[in-house]
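W.,

You were right to be curious about this one. When I first looked at the sequence I had no strong expectations either way, so I just let the prediction run and decided to look at it fresh. Below is the sequence, 122 residues in total, followed by the output.
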Amino acid sequence: VQLQACGGGLVQARGSLRLSCAASGRTFSSYGMGWFRQAPGKEREFVAYINWNTGSTYYADSGKGRFTISRDNPKNTVYLQMNNLKPEDTAVYYCAAHRGGAVKFTSAYEHWGQGTQVTVSS
Protein backbone atom coordinates (compact mmCIF):
# COMPACT_ATOMS: atom_id res chain seq x y z
CA VAL A 1 0.00 0.00 0.00
CA GLN A 2 1.28 3.42 -0.96
CA LEU A 3 -0.15 6.48 0.76
CA GLN A 4 0.06 10.05 -0.43
CA ALA A 5 -0.98 12.76 2.01
CA CYS A 6 -1.53 16.37 1.09
CA GLY A 7 -3.50 19.45 2.06
CA GLY A 8 -1.39 20.88 4.83
CA GLY A 9 -0.38 24.49 5.04
CA LEU A 10 -0.24 27.62 7.13
CA VAL A 11 -3.52 28.81 8.62
CA GLN A 12 -4.54 31.24 11.31
CA ALA A 13 -6.13 30.09 14.54
CA ARG A 14 -9.83 29.26 14.16
CA GLY A 15 -9.23 28.52 10.48
CA SER A 16 -9.81 25.26 8.62
CA LEU A 17 -7.87 22.81 6.51
CA ARG A 18 -8.79 19.58 4.77
CA LEU A 19 -6.16 16.91 4.50
CA SER A 20 -6.36 14.14 1.93
CA CYS A 21 -4.72 10.75 1.82
CA ALA A 22 -4.84 8.76 -1.41
CA ALA A 23 -4.12 5.06 -1.12
CA SER A 24 -2.93 2.80 -3.91
CA GLY A 25 -1.90 -0.81 -4.06
CA ARG A 26 -3.44 -3.56 -1.93
CA THR A 27 -5.83 -1.28 -0.06
CA PHE A 28 -8.31 -4.10 0.52
CA SER A 29 -5.80 -5.65 2.88
CA SER A 30 -6.31 -2.90 5.45
CA TYR A 31 -9.24 -2.52 7.81
CA GLY A 32 -9.24 1.21 7.74
CA MET A 33 -7.18 4.35 7.78
CA GLY A 34 -5.91 6.52 10.53
CA TRP A 35 -4.49 9.99 10.90
CA PHE A 36 -1.68 10.72 13.33
CA ARG A 37 0.35 13.82 14.01
CA GLN A 38 3.77 14.59 15.38
CA ALA A 39 4.88 17.93 16.74
CA PRO A 40 8.57 18.81 17.14
CA GLY A 41 10.06 17.05 20.12
CA LYS A 42 6.93 15.00 20.76
CA GLU A 43 5.83 11.48 20.04
CA ARG A 44 3.50 10.67 17.19
CA GLU A 45 -0.06 10.74 18.46
CA PHE A 46 -3.37 9.42 17.22
CA VAL A 47 -5.86 11.85 15.72
CA ALA A 48 -8.67 9.92 14.01
CA TYR A 49 -9.61 6.59 12.41
CA ILE A 50 -12.18 5.36 9.91
CA ASN A 51 -13.10 1.83 8.88
CA TRP A 52 -13.11 1.30 5.10
CA ASN A 53 -16.17 -0.95 5.11
CA THR A 54 -18.43 0.25 7.90
CA GLY A 55 -17.45 3.90 7.97
CA SER A 56 -17.25 3.81 11.74
CA THR A 57 -15.01 6.50 13.18
CA TYR A 58 -12.98 7.09 16.28
CA TYR A 59 -11.37 10.34 17.43
CA ALA A 60 -8.80 11.41 19.92
CA ASP A 61 -10.19 13.79 22.52
CA SER A 62 -8.05 16.59 21.10
CA GLY A 63 -10.03 16.63 17.86
CA LYS A 64 -13.54 15.73 18.94
CA GLY A 65 -16.04 18.30 17.75
CA ARG A 66 -13.46 19.98 15.50
CA PHE A 67 -12.10 17.24 13.24
CA THR A 68 -14.06 14.98 10.90
CA ILE A 69 -12.63 11.96 9.14
CA SER A 70 -14.35 10.64 6.03
CA ARG A 71 -13.67 8.32 3.13
CA ASP A 72 -14.34 7.99 -0.56
CA ASN A 73 -14.07 4.29 -1.24
CA PRO A 74 -14.09 4.42 -5.07
CA LYS A 75 -11.21 6.87 -4.90
CA ASN A 76 -9.42 5.03 -2.08
CA THR A 77 -9.08 8.37 -0.39
CA VAL A 78 -9.51 9.43 3.20
CA TYR A 79 -10.01 13.00 4.33
CA LEU A 80 -9.50 14.86 7.56
CA GLN A 81 -11.51 18.04 7.83
CA MET A 82 -10.07 20.22 10.56
CA ASN A 83 -12.03 23.20 11.80
CA ASN A 84 -11.41 25.76 14.53
CA LEU A 85 -7.71 25.01 14.40
CA LYS A 86 -5.53 25.94 17.34
CA PRO A 87 -1.79 26.63 17.55
CA GLU A 88 -1.38 23.36 19.45
CA ASP A 89 -2.61 21.52 16.35
CA THR A 90 0.65 22.45 14.63
CA ALA A 91 2.37 19.24 13.59
CA VAL A 92 3.23 16.98 10.70
CA TYR A 93 0.14 14.93 9.94
CA TYR A 94 0.47 11.36 8.72
CA CYS A 95 -2.04 8.93 7.31
CA ALA A 96 -1.59 5.23 7.82
CA ALA A 97 -3.20 1.92 6.86
CA HIS A 98 -4.62 -0.01 9.79
CA ARG A 99 -3.91 -3.73 9.85
CA GLY A 100 -5.32 -4.72 13.21
CA GLY A 101 -5.23 -3.94 16.88
CA ALA A 102 -6.17 -0.88 18.85
CA VAL A 103 -6.51 1.99 16.39
CA LYS A 104 -4.88 4.61 18.59
CA PHE A 105 -1.50 2.88 18.63
CA THR A 106 1.08 3.33 15.86
CA SER A 107 1.93 -0.36 16.11
CA ALA A 108 -1.49 -1.21 14.62
CA TYR A 109 -0.54 0.40 11.31
CA GLU A 110 1.63 -1.08 8.62
CA HIS A 111 1.98 1.59 5.96
CA TRP A 112 2.55 5.30 6.41
CA GLY A 113 2.31 8.30 4.15
CA GLN A 114 5.08 10.87 3.95
CA GLY A 115 3.34 13.45 6.13
CA THR A 116 2.02 16.91 5.47
CA GLN A 117 2.87 19.95 7.58
CA VAL A 118 0.10 21.86 9.33
CA THR A 119 1.05 25.14 10.95
CA VAL A 120 -1.49 27.16 12.91
CA SER A 121 -0.53 30.71 13.80
CA SER A 122 -2.00 32.53 16.78
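Here's what jumped out at me. DSSP finds no helices and eleven strands in the chain. And, maybe more interesting for your project: The first strand starts at residue 2 and ends at 6.

Coffee later to discuss?

I.
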